[in-house]
Amino acid sequence: MAANKSILILAGDGIGPEVMVQVRRVIDWFDKRREVTFEVAEGLVGGAAYDAHGTPLTDETLADAMACDAVLFGAVGGPKYDDAPRALRPEMGLLRLRKELDLFANLRPAIAFESLLDASSLKPEVIRGLDLLIVRESTSGVYFGEPRGIETMPDGSRQAVDTQFYTDAEITRVAAAAFDLARQRRGKVTSAEKANVMETGVLWREEVTKLHADSYADVELEHMYADNCAMQLVRAPTQFDVILADNLFGDILSDCAAMLTGSLGMLPSATLGAADDSGRRRALYEPVHGSAPDIAGTGAANPLACLLSFAMLLRFSFDLEEDAKLIENSVANVLNSGIRTADIMGANSSRVSTGVMGDAILRELDKQAA
Ligand code: NAD
Question: Same CATH fold, 131-259 and 1-108+261-370?
């Protein structure tokens, strides 16, 4: 695969391939209408790879993922694979990709589109203008720390242990990613931990403070206890720009922030690895939603989360801010015009299929680029 703007598409299962068809149309549009061109390869992952090759991720596909500039991922899983051995389940393909590519910074934006304000459970005036980014450490912490397990004691009682564990290097690499991203945004990082009651929280706060003083003094840094951060997210979410958190707190805070904006069908994400000497980071972009077997094949899937993941890819892997904005503005305008898939229907809107939503986005891109 050539080193210049190569993308590996892994559409996966269920609605993954359905939404990816629409994103592929947008990629082709960029190829034809903008200066940038992409070299796109496609591969199988999850249940689709299991059906074809007996494994959710082949070594060849993994090698392609290592060699390309960015992976665009759909979704994996489905009831058909419920009885597959654990090591061969569809999600193991995604987990292996994240592990082998050493993707440690998970990025989840939460953006309130004006025309979807009513989809939020919060009052419109609380979320109007919301545009925040959660950067979650995703390869360490309590989900991976050892020892862990459930033990039966001599008296027959049982006890369980998980270990919250962080090294200084794990903290500083994800914090550096958060500071770098803040520089591309409004220049503020809120670092969330529980330094009041956890040793990992103390180390987290010390390392983030030191890195900030050494290399990122131009960025505003605020420390916040993670429980307060959760409260602030539902009280006054527009105060945030970038929120930095460990694996556990980031998991909870990002789900909380996601729901501020309404539907799963609208939520993109990215996971980034370390930058190499040329500044290139390994990266995987994917919608937050799963394979939605309940609507797969019905043409009801919302392709916008996957499309917005592609916009993130343009921004973070290829530094194409203007092109990313072109997609995001097209999405906003299409929503404003009342065109909606079933999951985001509102009053005075017309319900369209996955493909018709793709048509509307392409028309809007044409209009904006004219
Ligand atoms: P899901 O995200 O697939 O679906 C949850 C609900 O949201 C469903 O009702 C679905 O119809 C709806 N929905 C999701 N995406 C939508 C979209 N783009 N447009 C319209 N509606 C949408 O979660 P689930 O039902 O818990 O899981 C289904 C399968 O997906 C499982 O096998 C699970 O393991 C897998 N999964 C995969 C990923 C991933 O690939 N990253 C993430 C989560 C779940």
Answer: yes
Q: Which amino acid would we find at residue 87? A: A
Q: How far, CA to CA in Å, does 77 sit from each of 11, 43, 210, 306?
A: 11, 16, 42, 16
What is the best residue among 289, 295, 302, 331 to mutate for testing ligand 1's pocket, by most ligand atoms within 8 Å of CB? 289
Is the alpha carbon torsion for 116, 119, 124, 127 positive or negative? negative
Class of domain 1-108+261-370: alpha beta
pTM score: 0.93
Mean pLDDT of 348-367: 96
Ligand 1 site, CB within 6 A:
15, 19, 75-78, 91, 94, 264-265, 286, 289-295, 301-302, 305, 343
Q: Which residue has the tokens 């994400």?
A: 269
The arithmetic mean of pLDDT across residues 24-33, rounded, is 95
Is there a catalytic annotation at residue 50?
A: no
At 322 the pLDDT is 94
Looking at residue 92, what is its pLDDT?
94
Which listed residue (80, 131, 143, 210) is catalytic?
A: 143
Pairing of strands 145-152, 158-163: antiparallel
Architecture category of domain 131-259 in CATH: 3-Layer(aba) Sandwich (3.40)
Question: Taking residues 311-332, what's their average pLDDT?
Answer: 95
User: Is residue 13 flagged as an active site residue?
Assistant: no
Q: Where are the domains of the chain?
A: 1-108+261-370, 131-259
**Which atom of ligand 1 is closest in space to residue 295's alpha carbon?**
11
Task: Tell me the residue type at 368.
Answer: Q
Task: State percent of the chain over pLDDT 70.
Answer: 99
144: β partners: none
State yes or no: is 227 an active-site residue: yes
